[in-house]
What does this fold into?
Amino acid sequence: MKRKLLTLVMINDGSRVLLGYKKRGFGAGYYNGFGGKVEPGETVREAAQRELVEEACISAQDLQEAGVLVFAFDDQPQPWEVHVFAASSYVGEPAETDEMRPVWFAHEEVPFDSMWADDPIWYPYLLRQEHFRGVFAFQQTTKLVWNTMV
Ligand SMILES: CN1CCN(c2cc(NC3CC3)nc(N)n2)CC1
It folds into this structure.
C-alpha cells in the first residue's frame, strides 16, 4: 500500500535538542521536531530542508538520516512513513513562525508529556545517534496501542 511520506528534522547539539511548540494545525499544543509533507517533484531530504526553513527559519548544514517511523491509524487507511533527520549545525537563528515557536531543551528535560506518545520510545535512539526504525499503531490517532522497534 502506498504510504504518505512525511519528514521530521531534529536539531541536536549533543546536550540539547531544539523543539518547536506547534501553534496550530495537526499536533497543535505539542512540542516536536520540524517537518511536513513531501511535495511532488522533491526528495524526502529536500522536503526536510524546506520545512525546517519554513517552520524555524534555519537551514541545516549536516542533515543525516536518523530513522524511519511508520504510523498505522485505525481511522484512516493510509499509513504514514515519517523520515527523521538529525542535524547538529545550521545557518541562521531559530525564529518563531506562524506554525512553530522554537525552544531548546536539555536532553534530560525533553517535555514528553507535551509530545506524541511515540516520542519517548524512539528519542533514546536519536539521542544516542543510533539509527532507528519503528512501527506504531494508533487508535483514534491519540493513543499508542502497539509498537515495535526493529
Ligand atoms: C509533519 N509530521 C507529522 C507527523 N509527525 C509526528 C507524528 C508522530 N506520531 C503520530 C501519531 C501522530 N510523532 C511525531 N514525533 N511526529 C512528524 C511531523
Summary: The first strand starts at residue 4 and ends at 12. Residues 6, 8, 32, 35-36, 71, 82, 116, 118-119, 138, 141 surround CJ6 (CB under 6 Å). The helical segments are 44-56, 119-127.
